[in-house]
Amino acid sequence: MADYDVAIIGAGAAGLSVAAFAAQLGLRVALFERGRMGGDCLNHGCVPSKALLAAAHRAQEARAAGRFGIRLPPPEIDWAAVRAHVRGAIARIAPNDSEERFRALGAEVIRASAHFVAPDAIEAGARRYTFRRAVIAAGSAPAVPAIPGLAEVPYLTNETVFELEDPPGHLIILGGGAVGLEMAQAHARLGCLVTVIEAAPSIAPREDPELVEGLRRTLKAEGIALREGAALRRVEPDGAGGLAAVLADGSRIVGTHLLLAVGRAPRLAGLDLPAAGIQATRQGIATDLALRSVSNRRVWAAGDIADPQGLGPRAFTHVAACHAAIVARSMLFRLPARLDYAALPRVIHTDPELAQVGLTEAEARAAGHAALGILRWPLSENDRAVAEGRPEGLVKLVTTPRGRLLGASVLAPRAGDMAGLFGLMIGRRLPLSALAGLVLPYPTLAEGAKRAAGEFFLPRLLSPAMKRLADLLIRLP
Question: Ranges for the Pyridine nucleotide-disulphide oxidoreductase dimerisation domain (predicted)?
């Protein structure tokens, strides 16, 4: 008889979700974690970054209060207090992910590094554990690129940047994706000089260029230097504890700190996957669309470390939760399950936020949708945005010619809060008329979504034929 019904490697977002569900079903669950409970999201990612951004946004609001007729002195940044706020946010959420909670749910939490020794066995802390089913949820780590000179200078990742006891004098960020841009704005608003180096022609290279341009203007207006299409040739020490980034064009950027934000790498090392016959790629554990290993039918993968065939990995906490639901359906109940990212949201949590659900215009065309409807509604036409003095932004919808929503892009304050509305539309394949006819409270930014959807029907409603029909009907008794 196996020691456990379900063995889970990794107590991050995905592993904890599976463990909680399986344990509450009364199954014998072993949860292996060598580091901090809660994984990257709680300790190094979503929670601390959003806490830091919250402090930074308050500082910026104080600077901008004059436009509302409120005179305030320039904000004074107490770095120690900002750090205390970040640590406090982590501490308040930590009990939800704690050993005590999961032991109370019935899981056995084993604080040791785990690796496979057989297709149905794991070794941890010099002890062997057998299982009926296993879930690999070991997550991912910050990617460290092979940059000449990197070994000679100190550098930061998302796992260390929140531990700085003093604010950076000049933070150089390598990578202009979500993490890089969020940390750039956070530190700039907290009084640091910031330079972002992005090798691609544009920051946020995956996002819709039309909306990226608006975000770019905001970041530049706040003093963030953006070096786009810039290849980094090497880094080297400069002065007392400083460093310099030397670009391919010969320019030299001198800073005090370097933050690497160029992506994630799956935590495969140390798992000894061959011992269990588990196939892996450079991107993670190879699975089918039910997240089951393609080579060991006892094993599933979830979260950043999963590499589902045809879809690839996604390093988002909400994807980890989605994966946990798929695993529960497939592994625990033997029900059909199939991962689908058609309505998957992603958000760059800057201010304004850039949210994307489904396909961008470029992605839709690349997917073979030659004929598209493009609907736009600028925030300058949204009463709530105007009232709050934030009229810069855009809602952009990508539809089929028949009015089915394929994707939505939003640049707006709290744009991520609209993502659920678009996700429901795409995921449930609701007609665009459902959004256009929705009654929303006034005034809200979400009205921009409704008004953009209404643009699909407006030309038909105001066509000459409809005008003639209205003229005829009004004459009837």
Answer: 345-452
